[in-house]
Amino acid sequence: MVFAVAAGYGTTEVVVTECVRVGRSWKALLTAPGHVGRNGYAEAGAKREGDGKSPTGSYSLTQAFGEGDPGTRLPYRRLRASGDCWGSTVGDRRYNRYYRGACLPADEDLSQIMLDGPYRQAVVIDYNRPPDSPVVQGNGSAIFMHIGAGQTAGCVSMARPVLESVMRTLRPHDRIMMGTSQALFRR
């Protein structure tokens, strides 16, 4: 289980905490700084394509990608120098899915972003996609945990050593809980 928790909706800074189950309890393995969308978190159910916000909620982590497997147990896709894309074009049948080919202008060019640094390692957050939900056009796409030291377009970024440590302990269908402390831990 990974947590990415912000103090409030307007901030891009989060605390990333990874926990593992030990018997019937949970143990924190690491805590590190991270960042989310340039406009902070969207309230639950309010995330939209291009809003610069990260979604609030609990999502499966089922696959990873990048320049080479750091030792994760998640299915891992090694990206090529060109032609790896993630659909972000509203109305396209490939919306919020990986595909290989010529990226459309609004789509994520995974290959180029890998070469630039952030996607040298990444984990897919299953927001607005199976197995957590069907894809809804326009509700947001390409939400990942990836390498970075600043705000994102809606993903969760963290230092490479932190991300790779998290990747090595993740198992298929582990989850990430994303949002403000108030939204995630209401009493």
From TrEMBL:
Coiled coil: none annotated. InterPro entries: LD_TPept_cat_dom. One of its GO terms (molecular function) is transferase activity. It comes from the Bacteria. Residues 30-174 form the L,D-TPase catalytic domain. Pfam families: YkuD. Residues 41-73 are annotated as: Disordered. This is L,D-peptidoglycan transpeptidase YkuD (ErfK/YbiS/YcfS/YnhG family). It comes from Actinomadura coerulea.
